């Protein structure tokens, strides 16, 4: 599992591709709500988000890495405006899983 796959899923606006990288629970912050969701709930929340905000691109602003975690800050370009995006991945066993995802206007 790589951050590149997560970024590719975000660029394509694919909640189902993104959900493959979720941990058992994931914290999602959107402009109007923030919560911790199960994998299946999180996929529905993101599917709704991507349906309402058609993705036009994603630009990486910053990447940070240490042994157990990785974070990426970027800008998600959509038809409704730009969202500052924060992606937080944590090492679990032999793969990195999405722990937190933020889309903020």
Q: Could you tell me the number of beta strands?
A: 6
Low-confidence stretches: none
CATH architecture: Roll
Structural class: alpha+beta
End-to-end separation in angstroms reads 28 Å
Q: Give the overall shape, derived from the CA principal axes.
A: globular
Strand residues, percent: over 45%
Briefly note the CATH topology name: Nuclear Transport Factor 2, Chain: A
Characterization of the model:
By secondary structure, this protein is α+β, with helices and mostly antiparallel strands. It has a single domain, classed as Nuclear Transport Factor 2, Chain: A, CATH 3.10.450.50. Helices cover about 25% and strands about 55% of the residues. It is built from 3 helices and 6 strands, in the order ααββαββββ. It has helices spanning about 5-10, 15-20, 40-50, and strands at about 20-30, 35-40, 55-65, 70-80, 80-90, 95-105. β4 (about 70-80) and β5 (about 80-90) form a beta hairpin. The model has no long low-confidence stretch (mean pLDDT about 95).
